[in-house]
Design goal:
alpha+beta; 5-stranded antiparallel sheet; 5 strands; globular; HIT family, subunit A; nucleotide-binding; about 180 residues; HIT-like
Length: about 180
Amino acid sequence: MQRLWVPHRMVYVADHHQPDRTDCPFCAAPARTDEDALIVARGAHSYVLLNLFPYNNGHMLVCPYRHISGYDEASAEEVAEIGALTQTAMRVAREVMGCHGFNLGMNQGEIAGAGIAAHLHQHIVPRWASDANFFPIIAKTKAMPQLLGDVREAIAAAWPVDPGPGVQRPAGGARA
């Protein structure tokens, strides 16, 4: 048997850390510390955090603070900020991680593949020319080369000092 160490998933194994299934994790995240919630940036209407179950290293999500399920329910301000934060996240990921491209997307509704269909979120998945290998196909396992806390720290530290109107740097993300 081979082992793939994924310590960040311990939160889903330990009974005392199980999230309340009735709570929305995207509504709960902004009340937690940036490090604990894996938040890399906060805006006036939305925020950016790492995906706890990433497809690739640096997989980020942009979520409005409001609990809405559809993109068509978002206000003009939310749409604009989600777009601005997505652009900044892409620039930062290129700078910090040296990625070659991105997959961007929103799955609207459970039938469309949304894991958390009740709260709108956009995926930003960094891609590299060499990120595909046999693991997901043969072993049904995705190898992640960095721990989530390390990725969050690097992205938060590289987030621009002046990312735009209403967008704030997260705690612990100060840049010299």
